[in-house]
Design a protein that fits this description.
four-stranded mixed beta sheet, alpha/beta, 2,3-Dihydroxybiphenyl 1,2-Dioxygenase, domain 1
């Protein structure tokens, strides 16, 4: 199925809930080498203008960190990001220096799962 003629749809942002938007934006800006932006309405994002998608951070007053790996009755992840990297070990070390932690449970030798400062899992996959 294609878009109706004249209609253009593009992914603009991926929104991550968190308890501290600035902290999470600072982590991803440092990790990815992207710019941090704060708009007049207070939204905090990271990206490289004019390219999209951006990562956008939304503060939730009752935010609960997801549990990794998933456990029944616990807060589940709603999204995770995968990053392809040229040197997985160097990328893991860089992510940890930026504030991530290596997840205590790993399910594959083909990728490494880390947790960002808000507890969102993300994976680093060798190119």
């Amino acid at each position: 199925m294609s878009e109706p003629q004249g209609l253009r749809i593009e992914l603009h942002a991926i929104v991550l809930d968190c308890s501290d938007a600035h902290e999470l934006a600072d982590f991803y800006a440092k990790f990815l080498g992207w710019e941090k932006y704060v708009d007049p309405q207070g939204w905090v994002s990271v990206g490289l203008k004019p390219h999209t998608p951006f990562l956008l951070f939304q503060e939730e007053p009752n935010y609960r960190r997801p549990v990794w790996p998933d456990e029944p009755e616990e807060q589940q992840k709603s999204i995770h990001l995968d990053f392809v990297v040229s040197d997985r070990q160097a990328a893991v070390e860089h992510a940890v220096k930026c504030g991530a932690v290596v997840a205590p449970v790993q399910f594959s030798q083909d990728w490494v799962v880390l947790l960002d400062p808000a507890g969102h899992p993300f994976c680093l996959v060798q190119m």
